[in-house]
Amino acid sequence: MTKPRCNFQQFPYIAILFILLSSSAFATVPPKHRRHHVVHHAVVVHKAVEGDAVTRRTALVHRASYRATGPVIRGGPWTEPTYADSTVGDNADGEDLEVRRAAVEALGPYNGSVVVVDPDTGRILTMVNQRLALGSGFQPCSTIKVSVALAALSEKVIGGDGRRFRRGGYNLTQALAHSNNFYFATLGLKLGFDRVSYYAHLFGYGEKAGLNIEGESAGHFPSEPPKNGGVGMLTSFGEEISQTPLQLAALMSAMANGGTLYYLQYPRTQQEINDFVPRIKRRLDIARLIPEVKPGMLAAVEYGTAHRAQQDEPIAGKTGTCTDSHTHLGWFGSFNNAGKNKLVVVVLLTGGRPAIGPLAAGVAGDVYRNLSQKNYFAGTRTNTSPALISTQICCAR
Predict the structure, then answer these.
(1) Is 393 helix (H, G, I), strand (E, B) or coil?
(2) What's the longest Cα–Cα distance across the chain?
(3) Contacts from 9-16 at CB under 8 Å and sequence distance 24+?
């Protein structure tokens, strides 16, 4: 029998995979339970505009007090605070104030953003910390794995059971639940950068998610494989990608509604709400793939990295934890799986080490819980006009 020969050229690749495996282990360690006390109230301001009296509903902004569990920044290279009043500067005109109240309460003293969207219309119901949500974006961390899973299934890189490795490896459900970096780095290598890029752009990366939303950024998707770790780091950590909360909310909406990528719209006046018409950016051919991806997102909440979001009704979601420049990041993109009123809830936390995906999942879980206690999901939303189909063409291969 011929002895295997050692190929020293494989050492850098093996080192990268070792780092990915190590990172997977750390991703599942939850922080200590958060404690905070928040006091807030709505403010109604009357003002005159061009001679007409109008009522302006400001953000549920004025916190009388809050108590954080630690210092703003402790050690490390972090330049973003972990705790802040994330509602400063927000304008809640046109928002669903019941949803906003639930989001503000859930976020508490943490420095971050919460975006809640109706997945069946693309309407943004609330956007807490509008400056952060509309900014240039941050590395998506492991939330990129949802896009990669859809790409791999589309290209039949994954088998029928979602298993990538022949001997004892994770299947897709387990890999999503535990956010296994090795699994998704391997998918990226099998797909290659061109196919990963094609599907990422198809799903909305590198373009604005909203329609005429003032100040929104298009984020960024690299034109070539990242220098740090290549396509494997891109498909496991989102290396060199800048994702906005709106982009993740749009993709989660498509997952929730069966494959329609809506333009996100943010009506700001009662007239704009009355005239609201959903607008379709493009139809994604993922309806047959969602049943293969969704179990992993449900499992993430049931027993995986997003277990802090767990409650009585099913929630499907994906966490993300990494660092971007001088801030730690905690992402969670999600949608509820029961009730009449489905919602997409996206949470982004920035700051020091407490800002991680499991904590972001806990914030989102509190949003759903707060609304459930108000019987929000049992109500009936006002019907809207039929969606208009966009003529936009995207992502030629």
Answers:
(1) coil
(2) 92
(3) 16/185, 16/229, 16/230, 16/232, 16/233
Mean pLDDT score of the chain, rounded to an integer? 82
Which residue's structure tokens are 């099913």?
314
Question: Of 155, 199, 156, 188, nearest to 395 (Cα)?
Answer: 199
Edge to edge, the sheet with strand 260-262 lists 260-262, 279-283, 388-389
pLDDT at residue 325, rounded to an integer? 80
pLDDT digits (tens, 9 = 90+) for 65-96: 233 333 333 445 778 899 999 999 999 999 99
Could you tell me the two tokens for 198? Answer: 């094609």
Query: Following DSSP, what letter does each residue of 270-301 receive, concatenated?
Result: HHHHHT---EEEEE-S-TTTHHHHHHHHHHHH
> What is the Cα–Cα distance from 312 to 309, expressed in whole angstroms?
10
What pTM did the predictor assign?
A: 0.82
Q: Give the Cα separation of 266 and 127 in Å (integer).
A: 9
Q: How far apart are CA 210 and CA 114, in angstroms?
A: 16
Helix (H, G, I), strand (E, B) or coil at 154: helix
CA dist., res. 345 & res. 313, Å (int)? 15
Separation of alpha carbons 315 and 305, rounded Å: 13
Chain centroid, CA 353 distance in Å: 19
Nearest to 371 by CA among 338, 333, 330: 338
The model's pLDDT over 200-229, given as tens digits with 9 standing for 90+, comes to 999 999 999 999 999 999 999 999 999 999
Q: What is the pLDDT of residue 358?
A: 98
Cα 138 from Cα 350, distance rounded (Å): 10
Coil vs helix vs strand at 346: strand
Ordered alpha helix ranges (H), the chain? 11-27, 97-107, 130-133, 144-154, 172-178, 181-191, 193-202, 230-237, 245-257, 270-274, 290-302, 357-373
State both tokens at 141.
């961390």
